[in-house]
Amino acid sequence: MNSSIRKFENLHIAFWLVKDTCWVLDFRILGVIMIIPTLFLAFYITYKFRKHVSELFHNMAVCLWIIANTTWMLGEFFFDDTFRPYSTVFFIGGLLIIGYYYLFVFRNLKIDTPDQ
Questions:
Q1: C-alpha count within 13 angstroms, C-beta hemisphere, residue 1
Q2: What are the domain boundaries of the chain?
Q3: Which of 18, 44, 61, 116 is the most exposed place for a label (fewest CB within 10 A)?
Q4: Which residues fall within 8 angstroms of residue 32, CB to CB, at 6 or more apart?
């Protein structure tokens, strides 16, 4: 499954970069359009890795990051940058997920190391 999902991960990064490039260049229509495939692939990848604890937590944080990023972008495009506080909520949510993972989950995972 890793090799098949890897193609989607790379495509997701490309979509995310296009979305953010549209944001910085003030290409509003394309930037808004790029939200859909970027978020779809983020959620799809998260779903595909739902049984892998580390991947699940990191991908949930990525989903929140993209939602925060998207909220901020839409606020700048259409609402005189008034959505930034809402974006902060999603950014903090992503940090809390990662923090929880490293404070409580990661410590208890058994990591297999190859025999030497």
A1: 8
A2: 2-108
A3: 116
A4: 74, 77
Confidence at residue 113, expressed as pLDDT on a 0 to 100 scale: 47
Phi, psi (rounded to 5 degrees) for 27? -90, 80
pLDDT digits (tens, 9 = 90+) for 77-102: 999 999 999 999 999 999 999 999 99
Choose among 32, 109, 112, 38: nearest CA to 78.
32
d(CA 18, CA 73): 13
Longest Cα separation, the chain:
59
Burial class for 104, CB neighbours closer than 10 Å (0-12, 13-18, 19+): exposed
pLDDT attached to residue 111: 60
Percent with pLDDT over 90 in the chain: 85
